């Protein structure tokens, strides 16, 4: 969808901001460009919508060389979100969001209707916020209007330059989560610039780690954290990359243990095979749990003695969320459910299983490295045999 072919940008003063860059972003993919200040991320991004022209090489958007597309027409196909949102100060939130579609010829009433839908989508109730002016919003709310406005013309591509950089860490995390949810439904092709490795791994399907004007590694967050390509990347992702891996490794059904299970309308069993059992409803959805102590000493149905389960997560949630949920509820295990199928119980994750899951993902990367070693050896063998 977006393809860089040997792109170089040299500014007039001789600074080479981007040096022979080649990479590709697939349709519907979110790629984060991450690296220290001044490494060329913004320059890379601005060449896509021709705010900056490359010195050499070319950039293709859906197969079209962008240098041959009229910049105005090009920018219609590309939403752009920046840190200083640049909302029109004298227009209401609703009008700010509706302006671009209206300029593109959508009737005013329809543009405003669509703007209201988008505000809703980014978590701003149009009835509450639609008539406010930008200076009557918090920083986080302004960022959301920025995202809604960028989506208003329904462009297939979004360029986002540190869009959540100006808000505090708590709001930032909330905006990131909301944006991820939004992206799941709109599936835009996104190039997202950040200098924050946490943000890059949380949001990116793949991340491009920039050195000076070059990409040092371009891979999934899990591989970049598990197998940094070189010392520069290892240094940039940080010594705590093992911890960061927790946030990019999902809970998988194979990670779960199967504890004893009882159903709500069962009579309370006398003996349990363990210290507790998970309680399910008639459709096998998670309800709660009972302890062996209760079952030994009391009578009646499970329903009368079941306690609600608070420590649970959907399958696919991150190991970091799992760990955090265990700590929050001081729980020795958490239940895992399939939310796409009501809340069907799948099993429980224990600290030991969590540890195994983390090792499983590290081992998967280690296998890749081992394969690469084998390839090199084979190559050595061939070269040596000559
Ligand atoms: N108009 C310009 N003229 C000369 N040099 C420039 C110009 N714009 C950017 N540069 C230089 O190009 C290099 C890359 O800048 P760029 O803004 O792309 O980096 P960045 O990775 O986005 O940095 P930051 O995270 O600080 O925004 C830097 O050395 C910068 O000083």
UniProtKB/TrEMBL annotation:
Keywords: ATP-binding, CBS domain, Nucleotide-binding, Repeat, Transport. GO terms for molecular function: ABC-type quaternary ammonium compound transporting activity; ATP binding; ATP hydrolysis activity. Residues 2-237 form the ABC transporter domain. It comes from the Bacteria. Its EC number is 7.6.2.9. One of its GO terms (biological process) is glycine betaine transport. GO terms for cellular component: membrane. The keyword Secreted does not apply. Residues 306-364 form the CBS domain. Belongs to the ABC transporter superfamily. This is ABC-type quaternary amine transporter. It comes from Streptomyces minutiscleroticus.
